[in-house]
Amino acid sequence: MKIDANTRIKICPRCGNAYHGAPALSRTDNHISICPDCGTREALDSLGVSIEEQDEIIATIHRYERNVSFDD
């Protein structure tokens, strides 16, 4: 993925990991911006998806993002 000079690295207040790109809005309070992974976890948790399956889903998302060129 191409990162330009205007891209800011942010720290997720939920997990403490660094991320860039569009944040997700936390479902717990509708005010805090969190990383996309935590946003996905909150959405899946609200559906009753287990932590193990959440890990698999997020790993699949990451594999897909690595294999897709956003510059095309």
What does this structure look like?
By secondary structure, the protein is of the alpha+beta class. The protein contains two helices and four strands. A hairpin with a 6-residue loop joins strand 1 and strand 2. The chain is flat and about 30 Å long.
Compile the SSE list and pairings.
Elements: E1 10-11, E2 18-19, E3 24-25, E4 33-34, H1 36-46, H2 51-67
Antiparallel strand pairs: 1-2, 3-4
Give the structure's gist in a few sentences.
Helices cover 39% and strands 11% of the residues.
Number of domains: 1
Poorly predicted tracts of residues = none
Measure the end-to-end span. 11 Å
By helix and strand content, what is the structural category? Answer: alpha+beta
Q: What portion of the residues fall into strands of 2 or more residues? A: 5-15%
The largest sheet is:
2 strands, antiparallel
CA-based gyration radius: 13 Å
Helix content range? 25-40%
Our count of helices gives: 2
Q: Total strand count, please? A: 4
What's the mean pLDDT score? 88
Element-by-element helix/strand order: EEEEHH
Could you say which overall geometry the principal axes of the C-alpha atoms support? flat
Which sequence of strands runs across the widest sheet? Answer: 1-2
